[in-house]
Amino acid sequence: MAVTSSGTATVTLPTDRQILITREFAAPKHLVYKAWTTPELVKRWWHANRGEVTLAEIDLRVGGMWRYVSATPDGFEIGFHGEYRQIVPNERLVSTEVYEGIPDAEEHAAVNILTLTELDGRTTLTVLVEHPTKEGRDAHINSGMEGGMQDAMDLLEEVAISLR
Predict the structure, then answer these.
(1) What's the longest Cα–Cα distance across the chain?
(2) CA–CA separation, 135 and 119 (whole Å)
(3) Tell me, what CATH number does 147's domain have?
(4) How many domains in the chain?
């Protein structure tokens, strides 16, 4: 089932607990990966034009943690964190993702599988987000995540291209 309403990324729901995001970038995969895994570069795109990333911490190793905090212009803070479970440089990242704004957040952690494939200097990024429950998946979709994700992906592409 497709849920995409706008933007250059496609969002589908392969199962009742999954969200699949797919987007092509006009940049090689090593630059998309670098923009995804370098704290000072994450600060340039994660905000999705909705404020500013005030914290981007990345300990890029299996068992290492990541944490991003953004602040909106009116001062509202939103945080996410997770743990890296698998790392294949320039190709695949598996990590958990916890939205810090809900009660018992750790119990609702999603597992994200990022895959990068390249053809003729262009990269296809897929992120499979697997929630522990259908309710968690639906809350994620209904949070308005798509608009921010679309804008963040556009900025991610700009950052990756700028690294050439």
Answers:
(1) 45
(2) 36
(3) 3.30.530.20
(4) 1
